[in-house]
Amino acid sequence: MENGNTYEFDLVTIGAGSGGTRASRFAAQHYGAKVAVVELPFGMVASDDTGGAGGTCVIRGCVPKKLFVYGSQYAEEFRDSKGFGWQDESQHKFDWQTLVNKKAKEITRLNQVYNKLLKDAGCERVEGKAKLIDRHTLEVALAVGGTRRLTAKNILLAQGGTPVKADVPGKEHAITSNEALSLPDLPKGPIVVVGAGYISLEFAGIWNGMGKEVHLMYRKALPLVGFDEECRAQVADNMRGRGVHIYSETNPIKLEKKEDGSIDFFYQGKDGETKSINCGLVLFGTGRKPIVWDMGLEEVGVKLDKHNAIKIDEYSRTSVDNIWSVGDVTMRMPLTPVAIMEGMAFAATCFGNKPTKPVHEKIASAVFVRPPLATCGLSEQQAQARLTGDIDVFVSKFKPMKNTLSGRDEKTLMKIIVKVDTDEVIGCHMVGDDAPEIMQGIAIAMKCNATKAQFDSTVGIHPTAAEELVTMRQRVRRIQGQGTGRGHEHGRMVG
Ligand SMILES: Cc1cc2nc3c(=O)[nH]c(=O)nc-3n(C[C@H](O)[C@H](O)[C@H](O)COP(=O)(O)OP(=O)(O)OC[C@H]3O[C@@H](n4cnc5c(N)ncnc54)[C@H](O)[C@@H]3O)c2cc1C
Ligand SMILES: NC(=O)c1ccc[n+]([C@@H]2O[C@H](COP(=O)([O-])OP(=O)(O)OC[C@H]3O[C@@H](n4cnc5c(N)ncnc54)[C@H](O)[C@@H]3O)[C@@H](O)[C@H]2O)c1
């Protein structure tokens, strides 16, 4: 790799999260670039001065969250097992500290794995907080003290995002997902969860599974804005059925800490009245914002977009032509595999002489509630709003086989959305056990522009729930597209 002997590095990356790590490893390993990666020192709970290799996903996002989801599922299995002849589930007791301690050990191990991945790829790791000085220079406030200046031909901004709390009085008494994953103990009283995105629903599901009384509050009639409406309703029904107290069309007003350590949470109910709940914990899952402050961005000329995310072109180049950006800080689609894709596309473009645009279409994702929701492509509402012509909707709602003996009163929902003139499957959605595992395979078919006829000609695996996706013959409705014909999802996940 040509370094021009002018700069110390071909690339300096800020942030060793999902996007920054993959981009840096690829640039070094595949394209021979001389790379340095700046990352904050490791801390289990993120702060302005702590982070760690692996980033949000590994340390305080996808991975610990999924471990907690696994942990929360046992009670449901013990309960369901009675229908299959197992007795005495009352002996099982849940111990939060065991789970949190084991999770911490695993995350510490993964952080070391990420450090090693970067080292093995030949990337220099610099521990500290980086900011831009000019378009080729960064200054790092080193974790060991003092500062170091790094010069680079190219700079990659991959510093991610951070949670935002609803701006109400007493918000300092609420926690975010950062703290939720490392709570020293679960509160004695009920838990209030505010918001209806991925994070609120996943934590509401986790604590409900662990036997806590959970009150979930959100502003709209249904949770998960941007997802298919029937799936949104099914998720809400399932959560209600499992004992989560749901308050739709409500707004947080204020929090007051009591002498006994509990919190009075005030909210405006559906009827417009002010009400309150006394609880032990409040979680705000009210969104995340890109980290764009105190980094010298404006001074160097890196522009922000209307969402206060870093403005990039289709190749992830910022408004300064040697500065690039990937992942949550660009808010295109804040998911780990998307940050990874953007990182690899950047490395190919910048160092591989292969201009590569990341493609934000037909990306499957899942909300790890119980049972989970998984989705790929357009919802029925998005298809209708964006396409022209006829759209066929196939829906199947059925009692999964396991529930016949377990007695659990919960249905599985599957939907397929088809563009009639081409017969292409443009959307697939599922709420039910194993939905994320199933949807990953469906996403491959959809990436290959599979038609409904090809789904129908696929032979199922029996007996599974997934076979329903290749046996849905009866269209439930045909709707008329009312859009301009722009066929795919826009970049952002939430509508
Ligand atoms: C609770 C939770 C659960 C999630 N679950 C899922 C999931 O199940 N599936 C999924 O696909 N996505 C999930 N996500 C989203 C996913 O974690 C993010 O999309 C992904 O981590 C983004 O990667 P990134 O590289 O853009 O940023 P990050 O992973 O956030 O990495 C950015 C890094 O930059 C560092 N940094 C910041 N500022 C500086 C600075 N000035 N100097 C040096 N370093 C700096 C930070 O310490 C951090 O390590 C979840 C997120 C959360 C919060
Ligand atoms: N399973 C996954 O893949 C997964 C899991 C967690 C997070 N993520 C990613 O992280 C991103 C952030 O997640 P999130 O759940 O924090 O954000 P989100 O944007 O998905 O949801 C935020 C929720 O908070 C509500 N809200 C915002 N401001 C509010 C206010 N002032 N008062 C009351 N409610 C308010 C919104 O209406 C919305 O329901 C997601 O978009 C997703 O891409 C993914």
UniProtKB/TrEMBL annotation:
Q: Which residues bind FAD?
A: 66, 328
Q: Which GO terms describe its molecular function?
A: flavin adenine dinucleotide binding; glutathione-disulfide reductase (NADPH) activity
- Cite the cofactor comment: Binds 1 FAD per subunit.
Name its species.
Trebouxia lynnae
Can you name this protein? Answer: Glutathione reductase
The GO annotation for biological process reads:
cell redox homeostasis; cellular response to oxidative stress; glutathione metabolic process
The positions annotated for binding NAD(+) are: 195-202, 287
What's the gene? GR1
Q: Which Cys-Cys disulphide bridges does the record give?
A: 57-62
Write the record's keywords in alphabetical order, separated by commas. Disulfide bond, FAD, Flavoprotein, NAD, Nucleotide-binding, Oxidoreductase, Redox-active center
User: What residues does the FAD/NAD(P)-binding domain cover?
Assistant: 9-343
Domain named Pyridine nucleotide-disulphide oxidoreductase dimerisation: residues: 363-472
Q: Which cofactor does it need?
A: FAD
Q: Which InterPro entries does this one have? A: FAD/NAD-bd_sf, FAD/NAD-binding_dom, FAD/NAD-linked_Rdtase_dimer_sf, GSHR/TRXR-like, Pyr_nuc-diS_OxRdtase, Pyr_nucl-diS_OxRdtase_dimer, Pyr_OxRdtase_I_AS
Output the lineage of the source organism. Eukaryota, Viridiplantae, Chlorophyta, core chlorophytes, Trebouxiophyceae
User: Which family, according to UniProt?
Assistant: Belongs to the class-I pyridine nucleotide-disulfide oxidoreductase family.
- Per the Swiss-Prot or TrEMBL record, the active site comprises 462 (proton acceptor)
Report which superkingdom the organism of origin falls in: Eukaryota
Mention any one GO cellular component term assigned to this protein in its UniProt record: cytosol
